[in-house]
Amino acid sequence: MKIHAYLTFDGQCEAAFTFYAECLNGSLELMHFGESPEAKNVPAQFHDRVIHVCLTSGDQVLMGADALPGTPYDGIKGCSISLQVENVPEAERLYEALSAQGSVQMVLQPTFWATRFAVFTDRFGVSWMINCTIDAQMG
Questions:
Q1: pLDDT tens digits for range 31-52
Q2: Can you list the positions of beta strands (E) in the chain?
Q3: Residues in domain Glyoxalase/fosfomycin resistance/dioxygenase (predicted)?
Q4: Do 88 and 134 form a contact (C-beta atoms < 8 A)?
Q5: Does the domain spanning 5-66 belong to CATH 1.10.3720.10?
Q6: pTM to 2 decimals?
Q7: CB burial of residue 83 (10 Å; 0-12, 13-18, 19+)
Q8: What pLDDT score does 139 carry?
Q9: Is 114 helix (H, G, I), strand (E, B) or coil?
């Protein structure tokens, strides 16, 4: 079994996942409502929204979509995407890229459990944690 996070947006899914693919060096498989077999059942103004996206980075997967038309949307709450990284330079790179234009709750810093740890919400409203427990470059 594998467990994958699935993020829901309100019209920003494609922009968010394009950004995540760039930051995480991943590739995207993406389909819009208007390209799906359900297109005839979706109002035309929602055809450019994402019905499903899959970001693959190495053997990791992050998926998402835009909320269904007419579905109440109250943002992404109650969870974080946690990135476990192998070295401080990668932790710093990801922190700088993903937190840009977002809000930082805890800056990237050493903690008693990690070489580096940070908590922030990106510009799309998704909460992230970066955790680097061992700096592979330090031995």
A1: 999 999 989 988 999 999 999 9
A2: 5-9, 27-32, 50-57, 60-66, 81-84, 103-109, 116-121, 127-132
A3: 3-130
A4: no
A5: no
A6: 0.91
A7: buried
A8: 41
A9: coil
